[in-house]
Amino acid sequence: MFQKPATIQDVARAAGVSTATVSRVLSNPGLVSDRTREAVLRAVQETGYRVNQAARNLRMQRAGAVLILVPNLGKPFYSGILAGISEGFVGSDYAVLITDTESNPLQDATLSGYFIDGRIDGAISLDGGLSAEALAECTRCGAGGRIVFLCEWVEGQDFPVISSDNAEGARLAIRHLHDLGHKKIGHVTGPDGNVLTTARREGMVAERERLGLPVRPEWIIRGDFSLESGHEAAHRILAMHDRPSAVFCSADMVAFGLIAGLIAGGLRVPEDISVVGFDDIEMSGSFVPALTTIRQDRHSLGRRAAEVLLDRLAKANEQSGREPALPVELVIRASTAPPAY
User: Fold this and answer.
1) Of 35, 251, 337, 338, which residue is 20 to 30 A from 183 by alpha carbon distance?
2) Is-contact 160 320, C-beta < 8 A?
3) Which CATH class is domain 8-51?
4) Which pLDDT tens digit goes with each residue over 11-38?
């Protein structure tokens, strides 16, 4: 025999209060006295009462869910961020839903449709490739204030943005290589048109100009944040008559591919060429050689995005625009050394 689930009336009888008081304790505990709150919570525990979340959501006209848009769930970079987001929503009564926008691209009306159909209350987007029309649709349906961008963003759009100081990270990388004695520094970029590509390249160029370092157009190689683009960059560097003595890569995955390609081509890292990455994903310290890189606090990025969205859902903060960038850190490991020549 299954035991009949406890009701709110059972809790009220056990606590000696009205059902309205029980409801108030469960939804706004700050509105009741400590003594009453303790009595109700004790009765909840004793009776085994569980809130009917679906009914509560229907009554409050909310979905009780938030959507996380991730460009490629297979990338190791996103693990720490998603952990931070998940932690940020603990205790919030919001379910966290995740979709891969690379394998399941959003049409212009898809995101706004999630809001209009009542499937989600808010969204965090790590995809800076969302179309302006898709975002305009969300604004038109009244959901624009419930979208937060994380790591990447769409230029010209007025949404909260949580990001690391990408330009400063690039400056730290170039400064480190210069301090080791490198003057011939190459760069493998991210994909064209990506906001992170732009920010990191601008930081790299600014620091190189400040230090008076020479540059050759062939030392700037287009990549796409992938292992394969790093490997392709290695082939191009191996074919150069005048090679850079060090390379700053736009992402750790690019650096891994670059190092593997350089070693396969007969060069040693860092003895013949130094390599710096960006992100400090989990395997950066275990790669051979261990990768010198720029660390983003991915967990804090995710948690901060969750906090900002929760504030907006509670209408406690409707300010848009860029949040202060989170600081980055240079992590020095075995992939960088003074130049051999």
Assistant:
1) 251
2) yes
3) mainly alpha
4) 889 999 988 888 777 766 667 888 888 8
